[in-house]
Amino acid sequence: MKSDDEEEINTPADALVVASRFAGTGKYVASVAFRGQADFEWGAVPGIYRTSPFFDKSIDRPHSINSFVASAHALESIFVEKFFLRARIHLNNPERGFASDRILAQHFGVPTRLLDWSANPLVALYFAVSDPDHEDKDGSFYFLHPANRSVSRLPTEEQLTAHKKANDMFMLDPPYIDQRIPAQSAKLTFHTIDKDAKTFTPLEQQEFEPGKHWLRKFRIPSRAKGTIYRELLQIGVDHHSIFPDLQGLGEQMRRNFLLRVY
User: Fold this and answer.
1) What's the confidence (pLDDT) of residue 219?
2) Which residues form the FRG domain (predicted)?
């Protein structure tokens, strides 16, 4: 479904109204998810499919990875394997597998075919308004009602890639590997793409089949970001509540300073 930026989110209450209005209209209410982005011009695109020098046509590449999709998936595999090789000292025999590898890597910032969402609209809203580097940009607030129930048992590679149809997605409930997952009410989507695609079409520009996934995108005016940020702090939604560790606490202090909240 194409984006609809006519309706704006100007307060946390607006986000809750959106959640209340649309959440009960589909089959799998428990799978409803929200996402916030600091710049409205950004599309909802998984990290591995975003612009990268790796896909620059001027760069020589092996013949085996001479397409956008093959390049993206090869690069994802390289990053994931390097992550586990170097993170071994920090990990206590984690479950390994196609899905679990990518979920853990995504959780720590590695670009993958996954996209982060939250079951909590206020958490998603926080991510849209709390970036000091983009406070002058309109943000975006996404609502997603998927066609499939959230899967808590991690699928195999064959199950995730069984759908040959392009522009499809699977909703996943990540395992609670640390306190951040429940704090963020985290959800993930895994995205398929046609092997001959030249780029990944942002979700808000995709046309889903009737009865399939339902997506809405709302604009957050830059002028409203400061007010929303302060209102979220007042109701206990801040960086430390979403990242409940010392690093999250320090980052909360930094963002308050940069966003002039004293």
Assistant:
1) 97
2) 28-142
259 touches 132 (CB < 8 A): yes
What is the C-alpha to C-alpha distance for residues 163 and 25, in angstroms, rounded to an integer?
26
Closest CA to 129 of 249, 218, 246: 218
Q: Which tokens go with 158?
A: 């064959």
- Residue in 124, 129, 243, 235 with CA at minimum distance from that of residue 187: 124
Of 24, 22, 32, the closest CA to residue 150 belongs to 32
Would you say 159 and 70 are in contact if contact means Cβ atoms under 8 Å apart? no
Asked if residue 49 lies in contact with residue 72, where contact means CB atoms within 8 angstroms, the answer is yes
- Asked if residues 174 and 186 have their Cβ atoms less than 8 Å apart, the reply is yes
**Average pLDDT value for residue range 150-157:** 66
Instruction: Tell me the C-alpha distance between 72 and 231, whole Å.
Output: 39
Please state the separation of Cα 70 from the chain's center in Å: 22
Per domain, the residue ranges of the chain are 12-222
Q: Is 36:129 a contact under the CB 8 Å cutoff?
A: yes
pLDDT (tens digit per residue) in 91-143: 888 888 898 899 999 999 999 999 999 999 999 999 999 999 999 999 999 99
**Which pLDDT band holds residue 62 (cuts at 50, 70, 90)?**
very low
Residue 103, Cβ density class (10 Å: 0-12 exposed, 13-18 middle, ≥19 buried): buried
Q: CB-based burial of residue 151 (10 Å sphere; 0-12 exposed, 13-18 middle, 19+ buried)?
A: middle
Can you tell me the distance from the alpha carbon of 213 to that of 205, in angstroms, rounded to the nearest whole number? 13
The structure's pTM equals: 0.86
